[in-house]
């Protein structure tokens, strides 16, 4: 471990006790080194291009430049210097409008947030966590909740499509051709492999879904270096039909899901939500979740 990584681990531990140590960098990356106020700061740059019609292209720009920043103990000045050097590195690349620069950073680091905002970044997604506390009483609800099966694929796809369309207005989803087919394939995959998909019904009419899974951070996945090692419950998608919102459907679904996900040995549950969504932050905070990481984006990418 380098001195920069040791310094950053110490800073992260002081910021938030739930932050894990720095993880190994991506296999293909480009180093970025700067000095700020006599202190060193470093980072690694990665470039990703998502093919048309692919799953990742539904949830963000088709071309992404990502920075893993390691400013060590140089603080906000080091992060600002890294962003300036990154912008200079990308000068002349001529990225398309369907592009972006991204960076993930601990949500509690408000000094870093000020630097990112000043450089034209906006918070796009939060990774939020919930401790392994017992599920809360959902209160009265008209709906019944049951495990979904193959016979429910079309109803689940409709609910996921409605959620994705809403997210395209207030989150990172991007309108793309073939979205329904991709979402349907994901529904089938979730039913087959996780088995943790619940359907809420109001007098037999589909009113909402919760698609979940059990996960453990591993190299190469989206939570490696974001969560402490161990077993976590993952809330992939909660979707409530527009006509059923405000009637306790989401609470009823999550009471059932949390009971299954928070088995003994679980470190807690996690999910991703969009800060600009006027509904989900309030709901998830009431469910006991709080932000751990914020994913920032600058669109389009620097040129």
From TrEMBL:
InterPro entries in the cross-refs: Acyl_CoA_acyltransferase (IPR016181), Bact_Acetyltransf (IPR050832), GNAT_dom (IPR000182)
Ranges of residues in domain N-acetyltransferase: 143-303
SUPFAM superfamilies: Acyl-CoA N-acyltransferases (Nat)
Keywords assigned by UniProt, alphabetized: Acyltransferase, Transferase
Record's protein name: N-acetyltransferase
A GO MF label: acyltransferase activity, transferring groups other than amino-acyl groups
Species assigned in the record: Amycolatopsis eburnea
Organism superkingdom: Bacteria
Gene3D superfamilies recorded: 3.40.630.30
Higher taxonomy: Bacteria, Bacillati, Actinomycetota, Actinomycetes, Pseudonocardiales
